[in-house]
Amino acid sequence: MRSFLLFLFCLINISFAQTKISGKVSTEKGESLPSANVFLKDTYDGISTDGNGNYSFDTFEEGEGILVASFIGYKSEEQKITLGGGELIVDFILKEEAGELDQVVISAGSFEASDENKAVILRPLDIFTTGSDADIYSALETLPGTQQVGETEGLFVRGGAGSETITIIDDMVVQKPFYSSVPDIPSRGRFSPALFKGVVFSTGGYSAQYGQALSSALILKTEDLANQTITSINLMPLGFGASHIQVWEDASMAGEVFYSNLKPYFEIQKQRTDWDIAPRGFDASFNYRQKISESGMLKVLSTFSTGDLSLHMENLDSLAAGNISYKDYFGLKTDNYYFNVSYRDILGEDWTFFGGGSFSYDKDKIDFGGAGINQVEKLSQGRITLTKNLFSASFLTFGSEVQNVVYEDSYNQLNSNINEVLSAGYVEADIFFTNDIAARIGVRAEHSKILDKSNIAPRLSLAYRVSTYGQFNFAYGNFFQTPQKDYLMQTVYTPASPTLFDYEKATHYILNFQHIDNNRTFRAEIYYKDYDKLAKGTLYNEYPFLDLPEVPLSNNGYGYAKGIDIFWRDQATFDYMDYWVSYSYLDTKRDFSNYLTQAFPTFATPHTFSVVAKRWFQSITTLVGITYTFATGRPFYNPHNPEFLGDRAKNYNNLSLNFSHLLSVFGNFTVIFFSVDNLLGFSNVYGYRYSSDGTVNKPILPQALRTAFIGMFISLGETNPY
Questions:
Q1: Hey, what domains does the chain have and what are their CATH numbers?
Q2: What is the pLDDT of residues 396-423, one digit of tens each?
Q3: Which of 206, 264, 305, 429 stands the most exposed, by the fewest C-beta atoms within 10 Å?
Q4: Which residues pair with 175 in a beta bridge?
Q5: What is the dihedral of CA 573, 574, 577, 582, to 10 degrees?
């Protein structure tokens, strides 16, 4: 839950000394620029200019700041300002970029959360104030294309399994972005949104720079230099922590520790799970930023977590036999370490260099019904990318990467391990043919040691601007992924006798229309995804294990996914209010895993609908957020139904509420955060489990009907200026 304390840290910059900023944005010829974006860099505050190029907005920021004005086809301008109350008048004169007036933006299949992108959909602060848990993945589930899956972790996108989405931090792959799994209980993402300045969420058709994901890529860019030295403490019912940020002239360093123990919280908020040891753990993180040159930035990120828990699970076969007292014991102890170092710089006038390395170590020690299971995953990665400015706004990007993944599993006295080396190269060109037509053309090539096979994946994106604010986008591409390690573990690999598996493959076709004008965004996207060579076979270590006929191991799986996604966001109609609405329709079937035939998968549903609204109340210095989500029921396996996966659970509903209240405690700036999940107490059911003989079933339910949270963040030594 440490995302909460970092959420509160993000809000610390909101102070109470209101400043009104106004002015005009015009061209060098004196012409007004309507609908230009004017905003305070790295904040939530800003507005678009009116029809005469004028703007005006209020901010509660204080101290030094940077005001930015941008407009498509013109060079962005920044001005340093001092915020301390009262009124500021700041005018901008933007210079036209040669050959780039009103250029299109390639955006098919991509949602971005950075302030710098011309087609901004979400900003990082949106993630903190969406839903009730300040989790990156939960916030992304309010965007179209995602599915609501409440009993396991993962980002499920457009009919794809959770394993088909890859998470990337500063261009380096994260092996396990979620905390370790517990049967029928979802885990959170390991990383807080506060670490990142930008979030690019691609629901398909993503860049050739990335691979090994059939469905989706979540690309996270970490913050640069911190802007102030600060120490904080964090108090909440489930734990406590502390953090410190130290800033120098050209460097900054941040460290944080957090201890959590959910036992006291579970005593108050009763759980449906029979916990033996409630989840407890220790987390620590460290990051260092060093400005090497005017354009060069060195970044180091390191995180560590350890934890343990245990619980008793109902044994349905025991219940079917009449023994109502028997339960299976499940114990889990985890260790996770992640290290990432990268350097980015501009070389000469038209070259950009990126080099990075990362290392992940994940260890799960599981006691399941007396069986001792140890799982270790290690990932080492190196990557180099170069970008050359060809002409105007056209670029050529090329590079290569190497990943070494080691899996070490043991089950009682049985041991198995595999060592995968994946090497890849990529080249991609962004070309603007005219101000209205642009293309991104790329290709990625990979070689897998464990498969002893290579692949070549072409990628293409096209953009056509039909008006000042509207454009069409098209994307096509092939995407490959090595089968999950549980399949690879089933076959013995030697250089002379490689595994029987091949790459899994998905081909994406995406067409969208996007209109962005005056802080309002409309987006509609249709897509088709064709799956081929999906891994199939019965895995006896899979949970839950269904009593189905044995399926031999093969790459004979296949399927499709098609649908439409609609998104609307409005930040202009209501003062101090921001809201968005998303809807997804999905039609998908696949034959994979141990499926008996092609069927609608258990992690997908045809209709998903979300509404998110945030409102700042100045008189009580409180930010209020509301999130409502609806999804039709998902399929589940019923052994009494001759139609495989022919049954569906009830529809899913959830209304969550969060408050962030700013105040002063003993002269120290303080934020109190409160949230409630499932405020109206909807009785959600994710599916059903059956005993082997089919006589006993059990619904899969959330761990509590409602979940409430409260936390306090205190910034030591920083006074409340209100």
A1: 4-94 (2.60.40.10), 107-716 (2.40.170.20)
A2: 999 999 999 999 998 887 888 889 999 9
A3: 264
A4: none
A5: -40
